[in-house]
Write a structure and sequence with these properties.
Layout: H1 2-16, H2 19-26, H3 40-49, H4 55-62, H5 68-78, H6 102-106, H7 110-115, H8 127-130, H9 136-141, H10 147-150
Helix pairs in contact: 4-5
Amino acid sequence: MKAKKWRGILLVFLFSLPVGAQEQETNVYVGSASCRSCHETEYESFLSHARKSRSFKSVEKMKKGLTDDEIRGCYGCHTTAYGEPGGFIDLEQTPELKNAGCEVCHGPGKLHIDTQDPARIRGELTIDLCHRCHTEERVGAFRYKPVIYAGSH
């Protein structure tokens, strides 16, 4: 009987939250492979042309001589949503988020996938999204070319 009471309290609490707060709880990162079934052409193009689709390899290649904290510092740009709720944690817990995938630019995909509603995902991308990771300092160091202009999907 106690479980029913708590379940009822939880439902009342959830439905009393503003709509954005409810979505925040349910809209989680699912990984780029989840996009493939509906966006196969874009997905294949992303894998073929976007270096960020293989970004975790850079971390693995460069980690020799780095401390664990330094390596975790790389995760913010080389994985999907590291440090954010539902984002990359580590290779064992969230291997589907190990690369900087579709959701880095388009946002968490669960609600979009569940509803197939285009309004539930970021469709219009701006260069400002790129600048979160591709700072002026990194542009020269990594020969950065914005995917947003490269037509990779």
